[in-house]
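Pipeline run #58 for the internal structure catalog. This entry was flagged by the ingest filter as a single-chain record with no existing model, so it goes straight to prediction. Upstream metadata was stripped on purpose; only the residue string is passed forward. Reviewer on rotation: M.T. Logging verbosity set to normal.
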Amino acid sequence: MDTRAFQRARLARDARFDGRFFIGVTSTGIYCRPICPAPTAKEKNVRYFLSAAAAAEAGFRPCLRCRPEASPGTPAWLGASASVSRALKLIGESALDDAGVDDLAARLGIGSRHLRRLFLRYLGATPIAVAQTRRVHFAKKLIDETRLPMTQVAMSAGFGSIRRFNATFQKLYGRTPLELRKSNTPNAHEPGHYTFRLGYRPPYDWASLAAFLSARAIPGVEMVTAEEYRRTIFVDGRPGAIAVRPVPHKNYLELQIRYPNPAPLFRIVERVRKIFDLGADPSDVTAHLKRDARLKPMVRAYPGLRIPGCWDGFEMSVRAILGQQVSVKGASTLAGRVAAAYGSPFEDAVVFPAPAILAEADFATVGLTRQRAQSIRGLATAAVAGEVPFDACLAPDEFERAITRISGIGPWTAQYIAMRLGEPDAFPAGDLYLRDVARESEAWRPWRAYAAMYLWRNSQ
């Protein structure tokens, strides 16, 4: 923890540090973001924390002015701790809602004590505290930005009971959830329609990310323009849809969700954050990559470049297989045929087919080669059996070993899939534009995936 740097960022209200640390003010008992508009506290009354959970663990209450729940979030990669990075992704998928830290650690292949030590080192709080703080923050977001009844807010945020929900907010904010809502005017919405603001650290290169996703969009499932990303979703056995757009001159994206049940809203929001790499800290990435003479002009040309993620790992892996040795446009056409033939209709669009459906498909009518059809069926069968998890519980090398056991999937495809799943150091070295620089890539760790994005962007 570089407290001198944090002090300078706090005094300057530097937005680049928003979410990277939090400020506890001992004279008020409140913790804030570094961009909080409240009068600047004296340094003697300030404590610095690496996460909101650590501030909450120390007994500080969230600020109602700067709303810590609206901050961009802790960077997903967190320096040298790959285990913490993967654990945070799993917590974002509600891994601790129905299981304990022992189960979470087992999924990562480490002991629960070691996982707890890593969380305390890198976040200043335990995994349980991090999960609880995320739950509270999301509930506060629902209170501020929706008109959901409080019982549904509690359910969506993962609280076991409305009584526990009310008690938690009374303790943290000194007010009941209803009293907090009275001080705000949430946006009106139709039943099943929700709007959220998802913050990020500037700069943010929406144009490059939208262009990448647009070229690879699956017809019928996704629609991407320069101003908006739309797609169908399937969660807990029900279809829905999302739409994401940038807001001019604001450091957040607007997310609109159409889904009949508010229970999985937290998971939906977390997945969307991964699609658009909203947890990244561009200042750290660019400071490292600019040391390379080849990358320096690219980094300057495209400030805020992000790694495009994906809604669903299996769907994206099928799209990656279809992209082997064909043009990007040709692969999208094939993916659209697969979706139309085996997916489920939803309004005027299509929900991409589940692994169980594609495991039995013959693909004779969609124009796939025998080898590609075999690879997709093999992938689907492995996904159904849980042999290839797409939830980031495996380290990149372990994931590559698991998925390359499937016929037709090699290291290039495996690294590309890992990259789209949010692994910042994945590097598809066999790519046409990356082969010549593969030897140089070691110097770009731990952000080789960003380097790949800069090289691809520069080749267009």
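catalog note: The domain at 193-262 is CATH 3.30.310.20 (TATA-Binding Protein).
catalog note: The mean pLDDT is 92.
status: ready for reviewer M.T.
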